Amino acid sequence: MFDKLWEYLQFPFVRYALIVGILIALCSSLLGVTLVLKRFSFIGDGLSHVAFGAMAIASVANLTNQMIIVMPITVISAVLLLRTGQNSRIKGDAAIAMISVGALAFGYLLMNIFSTSSNLSGDVCSTLFGSTSMLTLRLSDVIVCAVISFIVIGVFLFFYNKIFAVTFDESFASAVGTRTKSYNLLLAIIIAVVIVTAMKLVGSLMISALIIFPALSAMRLFRSFKAVTVFSVILSVVCAVVGMVISILAGTPVGSTIVAVDVAAFLLCTVSGAVVSAVK
Amino acid sequence: MSMIEVKELELGYENRTILKNLSFSVNEGEYLCIVGENGSGKSTLMKTLLGLQKPVGGEIILGDGLRKNEIGYLPQQTIVQKDFPASVREIVLSGCQARCGLRPFYNREEKQLAEKNMERMGITKYAKRCYRDLSGGQQQRVLLARALCATRKILLLDEPVSGLDPVVTAEMYELIESLNKEGITIIMISHDISAAVCYASHILHIGKKIFFGTREEYMRSDTGKLFITREESAEDV
Q1: Do the chains contact at A160 and B104, CB–CB below 8 Å?
Q2: pLDDT tens across A177-189, in order?
Q3: Contacts of A166 in chain B (CB under 8 A)
Q4: Which of A78, A86, A173, B156 sits a CA distance of 20 to 30 A from A125?
């Protein structure tokens, strides 16, 4: 088995896939804790559908660099979605449902009408489930992903205490002069960036899993914000590596294998969390 | 000059005015209790004082060198906090955030301040415990310690005893009174009129009729008499 793995690791695209996978797992889990606690779990889902719609526009327009369209559209949607969260006529969850389903339908429609590709359902499937795109990564993709990841990690570390404060108690934070609106905006932008980057790994339907599962698992076991954050990052990276190795060896689709491992880890954490509290 | 002076304030949401012609002032060391029926605008008033919401009209003047980010605030608990994984120390420390500005991490002075305030509230032994595992009264002490990290001068408390049992409620009131005796100005929203007339130095009653004055004046006034007797008769039933 190890021989086979070693053999695969000789291929540069397998190494690229592993690096990108680890980086994406790291970034997406960083924000998971905040999103889950702020009751924004579904925002990842909504935004990834928006990103899918944007991707459809980009491929119809035949752009070589799809990021130019996908990134700004997703960022703008994130900002709008987080803004409607507070007080508006359409409540937060309804707005997310509306936008995500709308974007999904619109994207598929566009691809169907204008697509020149001979394998339309294959294209759609790989955008949704991220099936093969992981293995077509080039060095430039890896570099872009690394740069984005370091920026996300840097921003998160720099604003860690502020993000905690804004997550725990927004009204207290703004009462003592923390600019909560700016931090919410910052969060929205980072989330969008992470999602667009992560689409490559698991496809747009399963990104939420990368964001929320590690956080939820960590919350079963740990009781301080720092411990939950650190553990969810470690867990997410471990699950991503295990998932990718399994998918390489067994020939399963990358995205869904990683998510399956995440689910298994969640169940494990839930059980051990229950055992620990029962023993206490 | 007073710490907070409110002139002809008009409160409301969007285009709907809830309250008009509200004027009062708070001096250093006073203990003001804001009472009134549900929906009379107590929480809106507090949010406006904190600058979380813009007044529809009128003005709020901060004096005595009080800056906007030097007001300690004890908000009502939110649903999010009920299952929030955070240790007591993390939460108390977050009261220092205004002192940091853009600096990403807390310095030693701020950490000491957090320790001191945990001690003051008698929660040092819970420092590493998870917030959601504490009792209601202990949680309020944590939030109070956090508010004290944000201020040396003035505390705004929004229904600090709601959901607490009578024994813990009494402890909470005594704790607040002791803070007031240490020189911290208190502004508190309360449903509990009997506690208000027991602890407060001044009372602001908002509703159809607005009353502002000292506790003694309130107990003699018509608004006060009406409210207090109604409260008592409600308790008798």
Answers
A1: yes
A2: 788 888 888 888 8
A3: none
A4: A78
pLDDT at B63: 78
Q: Which domain holds residue A243?
A: 2-274
- How distant is the Cα of A72 from the closest Cα of chain B, in angstroms? 27
The count of domains in chain A is 1
Q: What is the pLDDT of residue A61?
A: 80
Say if residue B236's pLDDT is above 70.
Answer: no
> What is the per-residue pLDDT across A222-238, written as a single tens digit (0 to 9) for each?
989 999 999 999 999 99
Residue A105 lies in a domain: yes
Is residue B152 within 8 A of residue B184, CB to CB? The reply is yes
Cβ distance of B84 and A168 shorter than 8 Å: yes
Q: Stretch B62-81: mean pLDDT, rounded? A: 79
Neighbours of A14 (CB within 10 A): 18
Instruction: Name chain B contacts of A40, Cβ cutoff 8 Å.
Output: none
Residues forming beta bridges with residue B202, ordered by sequence position:
B32, B214
- Whichever domain contains A9, its CATH number is 1.10.3470.10
Residue A243 lies in a domain: yes
DSSP character for B78? P
Per-chain mean pLDDT for chain A = 84
- Under an 8 A CB cutoff, do B86 and A225 touch? yes
Q: Convert the pLDDT of each residue in A122-164 to its tens digit.
A: 777 777 776 555 667 778 888 988 999 999 999 999 999 988 9
Instruction: Note whether A169 contacts B87, CB cutoff 8 Å.
Output: no
Residue B147 neighbours by CB distance under 10 Å = 28
More confident residue, A89 or B61: B61
Query: Interior CA angle at B183 toward B180 and B187, to 5°?
Result: 45
Which of A39, A161, A222 minimises the CB distance to B80? Answer: A39
B/e letters for A94-114, b = 16+ CB within 10 Å, e = fewer, are ebbbebbeebbebbbebbeee
Model pTM? 0.85
Q: Report residue B166 as tokens.
A: 């009578």
Burial class (CB in 10 A: 0-12, 13-18, 19+), A22: middle
A168 and B94 in contact by Cβ < 8 A? Answer: yes
